[in-house]
């Protein structure tokens, strides 16, 4: 018990200083990639839509750990050297972008096509239609699975320990190696991950309630 009390703060601090920023930065990059891939597929841009399908195929079909190793350990062999933290952000972001691209694409396609046609009839361009008509309706549809991927990403960041990022799980490993108490320390790390994910789950539920009134159907009926 004494070991757990002494190590709790030591494990929690890297979780706040490294794991959470790593999660947020990776998610932001992944969302940007996903939005781009989704839009070029929906618009059926000749070359880019094909690139998007290949990108999604590769990153969904290969392990995230392998992608981390390619970026951190593999790229230096071709002259590209990145620190551990940005390597992890790039790997997590590119991987997440492939999965969330399909979430956003399906959400965009769930918006009735008649609304895009009506926007075109009144002279709105494709970008204007997407920004002002389609995306505001698609986002509430995509929000739950997108937020679920954020929660999943919190746990996936533990893989960054394999490329020397000193995050929550790495710290637990280091303390376990010194104290020879791996079971207790890894369980404590699991509890901290659970705490973070539980807070995010509560935040998701609160945000979903706040977003309900903003959907087009509720605006029309309310």
Fold topology:
Layout: H1 2-43, H2 46-61, H3 64-74, H4 84-110, H5 113-121, H6 126-156, H7 168-179, H8 182-212, H9 216-221
Helix pairs in contact: 1-2, 1-4, 1-7, 1-8, 2-4, 3-4, 4-6, 5-6, 6-8, 7-8
Brief overview, please?
The protein contains 9 helices and no strands. The chain is mainly alpha-helical.
Overall helicity: over 70%
SSE run = HHHHHHHHH
Report the CATH C-level class.
Answer: Mainly Alpha
Average pLDDT, rounded to a whole number, is 91
CATH topology group:
MetI-like fold
Number of helical segments? Answer: 9
The SS-based structural class is: mainly alpha
Give the biggest beta sheet: none
Please name the fourth-level CATH homologous superfamily: MetI-like
* Spatial gap, N to C terminus: 55 Å
Number of spatially distinct domains: 1
State the CATH architecture: Orthogonal Bundle
Number of strands: 0
| General form | flat
Gyration radius, to the nearest Å? 21 Å
What proportion of the residues form beta strands (DSSP E)?
Answer: under 5%
* Poorly predicted parts: 213-222
